[in-house]
């Protein structure tokens, strides 16, 4: 899509003095390789499905387009319950590499996985807490860290035995994971070390790298906090790796309802 490439190149030129080298490479490397589809996700109306500006029917058609792109090994941008994210199939090693390259992300920083249902977590993680705890926190704006299972792609975060898992409280994202039938690798839609994004135009310089950009509109309260990341890999303990959305309510559930204690040794 020529217009998307032009937008990205113009943005890169205007922001070049303030962006990293990785950001400046984005437009030049990918414009000629992908035709980015920007699809606006609109709520259904009482008169039937809403049609977006690209002519795609809301919901089902956008899901099919996004699933197709993911299955073909591409990276896509998606809305979540906290910020916009970049997603690819977690079991696809080449797609994971693309995601790191698009962000200019340090290869020793992990990617989380995203699944559609609580029961899916048990396939990819070794869970040491009650299932009821998972149900109390998920879907929601938290990332729960567990020991990874042997089923998960060994090329995803090969430097650690742990993996963070999300179930966003976002109907499109949950359905996307369900339709893919496997976990998504998920990270924020921005150049590494730059601020998180809550509107699609805030990461336009990345569009030429992406097969699909799903525009879900402005996200939430626009706090840009991201999910609260909690390590639950040790029996009876928790550790807040990164404070974010719903921090106080998450800690309250862990301590008061399930009696977990904070791991002061970390």
TrEMBL record:
<comment type="subunit">
    <text>Interacts with RSC1A1.</text>
</comment>
<dbReference type="InterPro" id="IPR006070">
    <property type="entry name" value="Sua5-like_dom"/>
</dbReference>
<keyword id="KW-0809">Transit peptide</keyword>
<dbReference type="GO" id="GO:0000049">
    <property type="term" value="F:tRNA binding"/>
</dbReference>
<dbReference type="GO" id="GO:0006450">
    <property type="term" value="P:regulation of translational fidelity"/>
</dbReference>
<dbReference type="GO" id="GO:0005739">
    <property type="term" value="C:mitochondrion"/>
</dbReference>
<comment type="function">
    <text>Cytoplasmic and mitochondrial threonylcarbamoyl-AMP synthase required for the formation of a threonylcarbamoyl group on adenosine at position 37 (t(6)A37) in tRNAs that read codons beginning with adenine. Catalyzes the conversion of L-threonine, HCO(3)(-)/CO(2) and ATP to give threonylcarbamoyl-AMP (TC-AMP) as the acyladenylate intermediate, with the release of diphosphate. Participates in t(6)A37 formation in cytoplasmic and mitochondrial tRNAs. May regulate the activity of some transporters.</text>
</comment>
<keyword id="KW-0808">Transferase</keyword>
<keyword id="KW-0963">Cytoplasm</keyword>
<keyword id="KW-1003">Cell membrane</keyword>
<dbReference type="InterPro" id="IPR050156">
    <property type="entry name" value="TC-AMP_synthase_SUA5"/>
</dbReference>
<dbReference type="GO" id="GO:0005886">
    <property type="term" value="C:plasma membrane"/>
</dbReference>
<dbReference type="Pfam" id="PF01300">
    <property type="entry name" value="Sua5_yciO_yrdC"/>
</dbReference>
<comment type="similarity">
    <text>Belongs to the SUA5 family.</text>
</comment>
<keyword id="KW-0472">Membrane</keyword>
<keyword id="KW-0496">Mitochondrion</keyword>
<dbReference type="GO" id="GO:0061710">
    <property type="term" value="F:L-threonylcarbamoyladenylate synthase"/>
</dbReference>
<dbReference type="GO" id="GO:0003725">
    <property type="term" value="F:double-stranded RNA binding"/>
</dbReference>
<dbReference type="InterPro" id="IPR017945">
    <property type="entry name" value="DHBP_synth_RibB-like_a/b_dom"/>
</dbReference>
<protein>
    <recommendedName>
        <fullName>Threonylcarbamoyl-AMP synthase</fullName>
        <ecNumber>2.7.7.87</ecNumber>
    </recommendedName>
</protein>
<feature type="domain" description="YrdC-like">
    <location>
        <begin position="60"/>
        <end position="246"/>
    </location>
</feature>
